[in-house]
Structure formats: structure tokens, C-alpha cells
Amino acid sequence: MNWTEQNVLVTGGTGSFGRKFVEIMLREYRPQKLIVFSRDELKQHEMRAAGIDHPSLRYFLGDVRDQQRLERAFSGVSVVVHAAALKQVPACEYNPFEAIQTNINGGKNVIEAAINCGVRRIVALSTDKAVNPINLYGATKLCAEKMFVQANAYAGAQDTRFSCARYGNVVGSRGSVIPVFMQQRARGRITITDLRMTRFWITLDQGVRFVIRCIEQMHGGEIFVPKIPSMKLLDMAQAIAPECQIDCVGIRPGEKLHEVLLSEDEARNAMETDDMFVIQPAHSWWRKENWKSAAPLAEGFRYASDSNSQWLTAEDLYRLVDGCAPPISLAEESQVRASA
After folding, report:
1. Running DSSP on this structure, what letter comes out for residue 104?
2. CATH dotted code for 3-168+202-227+260-305
């Protein structure tokens, strides 16, 4: 795929993923045109003021709830990365209609606009919370996955193809637990909902590069799952703030003890490569020979954060997170603040 010939658009382009995607695209892939589509003019201004600007870059105000605006933005676009979503679990629980409007109806609008405008490749971002969801955010992402997979049948013979990229928690992103732990470290107490809890972890850079590989390899209809490490939240808290007291506050509504990126039922239609799993659609239009080089999974296979074969160590975490130590002691931290 020659990226220098592509006109690329990212929805939710001012979010954590969108900013990193734009930076990597401009620095390494140099598309013919790169469009940041988002609804917040302040965040667009802040991105531009931070130096994220280029003659090929366009900042486009709009909301995925508005299909007409999407069609205006998609004119001439060949690749779309759909990253716009309401992602905070408590916010989605409290504002369910808003979550549905953005994550489900917004996804439908992206699909309709992409087909109407002849966009060639669309990848929608998903989450481990879409697997056997117990909260509204995960449920809306499950619906979105179903829509984007089946959208390939809606496109028919037209050369418009849809796929999804599903991965775990992003290290250091907005809403990540790591910035919360680093703030709590100053108070000497860290709160964890359950000491047994585990999560999948991926960096923004890794997530962006994974999505780019998905775009380059997709046939249309796949859900791509990267092989990424797990870490216990207790180990993470102790790595970030080893001298702090750990308070167990109990699992909150809509929260799982462990996350799953690939369920046993999905594994029957999934294939494995060296660095990812590919969930194939169970539809008549899908051609099994699309992924001949991948291997089928064993019966009953399940890719979960508590039974993962890859685990992050404290040293791995320090390398991944900007500003994450190795941590100094509370006494040293107090001295630093006092001297400042």
C-alpha cells in the first residue's frame, strides 16, 4: 500500500489515539492528505499550537452523529480510521442515550458515508470490553463491531471494505489508571478495586502501528486482535508507588475482574499469526482462503488477561510510561516539591 497516494481521515482525531496516529502518519508515511475530524475546536487549536501541523494536514470540525457532515469530510478520502467514541465506562452508564448516539448511531453514519463516498478501506477501533460485555460501553462497541463487519455485505461489489481492530487498555492514555496512580502516589495511598485484577496493556505507539498494519493487510470483515502483555493492577501500583499503602475498594458496577480479547466462541472462526489473531466473519460472503498463511486455533482457546503467556514487569512498565520513574521514595518526592 503506497501511503503517499492516500487521502486519510481519522475520526476523533484530537483524542489520544488520533494525535499519535497523526504524528506517525506525518513523520513516517506522508499521505497525500491527512484529515483530523473531531467536534472540539479547542482541542484542534491546541493540536495545531503544539506544532502538529503540515501542508497536507486538514482540521475538519464535525460530529459522527451528523452523516451529512461526514459525507462532506469523506469526499475524496480513500482510508478512514474510526476512533471517535465515548469511552469512559461510568459516563456511558450514566448517559446511556449519549453513548448509543455516538458509538452505535455514529458508527452507522460512518458506514453509510463511507459507502456513499466510495472510501476504500475503513478500520474501526474496538476494545476488549466488547467481548462478553457487562457494561454499556462494551455493549455499544460489540454492536459497532457487528455493524462494521456486516457493512462489507452492504458495500457489495463496490470496492469499500470494513474491518475492526480490537485491543486492550492503552498505557498512559486519557482515562488510564496509570495517571491516577501517579497522582495518588503524592498522597501516599493507592486505591485498587480488587487485588486480583488483571488487564491487557498496549502503548499508543503500538496501537497506532497495529492499526496501520491492519489497514495494509485487511480483506474486509476481519476483527484484528494483537498479542499484547498483561499485568496485575496490584503489581502496577507497587511498581509506580512501592511505598504507598494499597486500599482495596471493591469492584465497581460494569467492571470485570479480568478482560478477554478473544472468546472461546470467537476462536472457532479465528486464525493466528506470529503477532496477532484474526477473527474471520461467519458469513457466506467471506472467503476462507483470505488468510491461508495463518494457523487455526485449538479447540476451546481463550485469550484472557489472567491466562496470558506474556506479562509486563516493573522494568517493562518504566520503559513504556513517560515520567514513570523508577519511582523515588515519598521522602525524596516531598523534598523535591518543597525545593520547587
Report:
1. I
2. 3.40.50.720
pTM over 0.70: yes
**Separation between Cα atoms, residue 88 and residue 319, nearest integer Å:** 26
Mean pLDDT for 231-235 is 92
Longest dimension (CA), the chain: 68
pLDDT tens-digit series, residues 276-311 = 999 999 988 898 888 988 999 999 999 999 999 999
**Dihedral angle of Cα 205, 207, 209, 210, to the nearest 10 degrees:** 160
Give the list of residues 6+ apart from residue 100 with CB closer than 8 angstroms, or none: 136, 140
| Annotated catalytic residue, options 43, 87, 108, 129 | 129
The predicted-structure confidence for 81-111, as pLDDT tens digits, reads as follows 999 999 999 899 999 999 999 999 999 999 9
256 in active site? no
Residue spans of the domains in the chain: they are 3-168+202-227+260-305
- Could you tell me which of 259, 236, 170, 173 has the C-alpha nearest to residue 206? 170
